[in-house]
Structures are given as structure tokens and as C-alpha cells.
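Notes from hallway chat w/ T.B., transcribed later so I don't forget. T.B. wanted the structure written out for a chain they're using in a teaching module, and asked if we could keep both sequence and C-alpha cells in one place. Agreed to drop them here.
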Amino acid sequence: MATRVIGRQQQAEGRHLKKWILTALMVGIGPGLLIFSAYLASIFGEGKTHLILSAFLLVVLPFGAIYVLVGAQNHRVGKTLALWGSISWLFSLLLLFGAMEKTSEVLKTHGAWFTSFWGRSKRSKGDALAKRLVDTLPLARGIPYWFEEGSIIVKATVASPGRSVDVRFILDTGASVTTISSALASSLGLAPGPGGASVEVQTASGVTRYPLVTLDRITLGGGYTVGPLTAAICDPCSSKNTQGLLGLNFTSHFHLSINSKEAVVKLKKRSGWIDQREEIEPFVVVSNLVGDLTGERFRISGSLVNSATKPMKGLVFECVVRDKKETVIERKRIQVHTLKPGANTRVALKLAPYKNIGSFHLELKRGFWDGAAGKSAPPSVH
């Protein structure tokens, strides 16, 4: 008797859970209608045409098609609504997170189109409500910024091996390289060695050379990350409330826009590889470059040393050969797949046997930090 009672209770609980699941799936019809009708309004404009298209394409057509697909089954209407809701949830989530910025704009502009039936005042309130609702969702809201002394300030997280520090940066799209203060460098455990890589930085007091270090990564807004990347230790580039400048070697990895009305910076990751030659070049030391004219070839050999703490990959060098009048007589490229920190890598190439060679040197044409997030191997150069 007790077993039968337990069995009935389990069956009742199973039916109850099934109803909740079906209800959750059916609820998806609502967000789907809202999002897709807003997209239709952005394409065809709001009005009678939009209303007819929304009714046919978003209600009549999907319900009819799914109803026929379900066929003659028990609870046919319920199953139709559940399947319709499932599909609606799927495509709604794809739009919400696959086209965040566009969906955010469409919902803010047309998400309350149906409130127009109750007059302008209701529509204004509906638009305000739609904006507030969209801003609470994890869509393309952007990264908040503040104005301080005429500069845009953003919050970021800077990481080095085993350490991570939350900072405030000045967003400076005119700075070619990111800078950090000496205090932040110390907090991150970074100390440039004597005679190490350096870069010229324009400050209020003029152009000065500052030492370079490599960071594991910099993250904005919890999801916009670049790393490894180079930073110059420049105290004049920071202030009492900021720890440095966020430069082009970070922002060039994104399509960047500034929405002054909402006080947010919007970033969209660029596809493909972003050349990091300029920030890598100061760390590449070319030494013992010699030429030897023997036989039918002019042979050039030398050594490459990576003075940074991070490995490099996909480096492309061009050997430029000039005659005694400084006229370029040949250019030849050589690719170095990897360059480990501190390692001495030999390079060699063969050229035509020119007899009036005046000088030759290697120029770095392309390069990337190894370990870049989401990157496997840079494209080859032929």
C-alpha cells in the first residue's frame, strides 16, 4: 500500500515538473515576439505594414507550421506552443548574445512600438522603460567612463605572472603604447633591467625615453582582454588618481566607439591577427650580422635575441642590401616562427653575389606575442 502511495506521489511530482518545463518553454514566445517585431519595425518602420507583417510572420506562420508538424497527437496545441516557445528562446538568445550591440539599439528604439496604440505619452514612457530594461541586461552596454581634467578614465585589471591589480587608466587613443606608473610596475613585480628595451614617449616636459616591460594581460569590463602586451613605465603619464595610459597597443584590437550620451566606451573585438611589430621590435636584438661573399652567393648570417620575458612568434624580417651609393639593390624576407625569451636564434640567408655591397641590415616587418588569447598561429608569409 505504501509503495503505491509513493508511486502516485512520484507520478504527480513528475507531471508537475513537466508542466513547469512546458510553461517555461511557452514563455519564450513573448521575448521572441518582442525582439523580432522590433527588428521588423527597424526594417519596415512602425505602422500598419509592420503590424500585418508581425502578425503573419511571427504568429500565424510559426503557429500554423508547427501545428501541422506536430500532427494529430494528444495535447496538440500545448505541444505546438511548447515547441514554438523553444524555437523562440533559441533565436532570441542568438540575437541577444550574437548581435548584442545591434539588438540593444533595436530594442531601445522599437521595443515599445505597441505602446503607440495608447498615445504619445504612453509611448514615451514605454521607450524609457525599454531603455531601462535593456540596460539591465548583459548586452552591449559598454564600459562606463568618467571625465577627469579633460581625460576619459576607465577601470581595468592588469595582470603579471601570479599577480593582478585593479587600476584606473586614462584612455588615450593617440598613445602608441600603454604606460604604467613605477608604483604599479612594482605592485606587479616588474622591474626592467639596465640597458633593456625602451621607447620614446611624448609628455608635457618633452620627449623622453622610458623602459619597457611586458604584461600578461589587461582586461576591461570583465571580458575585453588583450595580452601579452608591452607597457612603458612612465610616471609623468599617470596622476594621483590614475596609474597610466591605455594606448593603441590595447585599443587597436577592437573597434572602439565612445557614447558620450550614455558615458560608455563600446568595444567590438577585431577578427584576425593584429600586428604587434611596433611593441615587439624594441625587445628584438640583432647581433653579429656578417656577410660573406664566397662562390656564387652572398651569405648573410646573424643572431636574434628576445630580451623580453614573453615568447614571440610569426616574426618576419626583411634583409635590406644597399650598394656603396646607398641605393637599395635587394630585399629578401626571412620568417622566424618562434623566438623564446633569452634564447639566441641563428638566422642565415643567401643572396645574389653583388660585388659593390655597401651595407646590409635586418628590419622587423611583422611579429606577435606568443600566447595571445584565442590565437593559435599567425598566417604564413610567402
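Follow-up for T.B.: The mean pLDDT is 85. Might be a good example for the class.
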